Fold:
Amino acid sequence: MISEQIRVRFAPSPTGYLHVGGLRTALYNYLFARQNNGVFILRIEDTDRSRYVEGAVENLIETLKWAGLDYDEGPGKGGEYGPYVQSQRLDIYRKYAKQLVEEKKAYYCFCTPERLEQMRQELEQKGEFAKYDRFCLNLSSSEIEQKLKSNTPYVIRMKVPDNTTIKFYDLIRKDVEISSQLIDDQVLIKSDGYPTYHLANVVDDHLMKVTHVIRGEEWLPSVPKHILLYSYFGWEIPALAHLPLLLNTDKTKLSKRQGDVAVEDYRAKGYLKEGLINFIALLGWNPGDEREIFTLEELIQEFSIERVGKSGAVFNIDKLNWINLQHIHKKTEKEMLPILKEIISRSKYKDQLFSDKYLEKVIHAMRERINYLAGILEKSPYFFEPPSSYDPNYLSKHWKSETPIWLDKLVEAFSKLENPVKNDFESALNQTAEALGVGRGKIIHAVRLAVSGVGEGPGLYDILDILGKEEVINRIQQAIKNIKIQYARE
Ligand code: GLU
Structure:
């Protein structure tokens, strides 16, 4: 027997950016598809016109591509079951909704928003579950016909059976059941003619032959409605897996207020896609042992839905930083160069020219001191511009009244060097210290402050080597002047 081909989908609504939770859903679907030689579909669920955002689809596709999660069927790729954008499938949903109306499993509802709102308020005041009172279920066929003829706005509602228990099995949540009394007669077609998520989702999962629905837990409450729809249509229900919520470190639902939630933000900071994907993979899934560092290929081998937990997964930025650093370790400077260049092109240094060789040296000096590549600009802006101020604490400790005299001597020594590299700066500094009869540590600290403005960073001679003789001399001379002024002000 040939077993059925596994088909999964990532079905985002294009609301502006890809949320990290969305990336996890996409990733788990992708991993599951790849390890089963299945098909990974991208379907755009854009039936909520009020939430439509220009450019969101392109942005989403671009972000998935960046993350390396290529889909097999979807917008721009095609496939046998397209179109893969729901707003291009309206006729299909209307046809199925009509079918349900004819079979008396759905009905027209002409209630005005005002009436519905009043009804909702009354029920809420009574402390009752706010669901539609089925006023329109009792309309006669001639009343319905007349309203349709006179173009009265309407929606189509699903008729939910009374007093039934709806049961289903979720691969992660296991057996779930809910009373139909808690389910509203869900709108299937809205008054603008667009389907709701529920109808479009079920119809598409069926028509696109989706075998496994893997998505966030927030969709679990929708499942009973979907189960009813599948049974009304007489369709097979795909396997379901609802992924645990993502939480802030204080265990509240992951929110923008406590940090970045858009994948683009992490990309813009220069997190490696390998690091972000690795971290995201562990939000809900674990390999069952101590391992924490995985490549995408390894994740394809190792991932299993059985090892996805039920409880919320904490989005811990420190962990992301640590994992990302492990992936930085695996990269060459050359591989990281385009990322740094991209970051520079969006920074205030965008109009300055830095050679690839220069930037590679900067990456080399900083790679162990950062967690993401924008950290280079944050922690060592002095590789891109001379310091505009000098750390006052370090200054008061390491800048003495004699310092300018020592540094003048050092500048003299540096000026004589021809195309100096790291060691040349070092021996010139040693010789100057000796000639002056001062400990070289004193000069080292002062030079560091003069060229970088701060007291920490890579080895001083690495910094000098990267900046080059001319820049180093300029900065030392500038510091002598500036610090006099800064001191005078203090
Ligand atoms: N369109 C839904 C979303 O925005 C998809 C839910 C599902 O996968 O069924 O996340």
Notes: The pocket of glutamic acid is lined by residues 11-13, 45, 197, 201, 215, 219 (CB under 6 Å). DSSP finds 20 helices and eleven strands in the chain. Residues 332-385 form one domain.
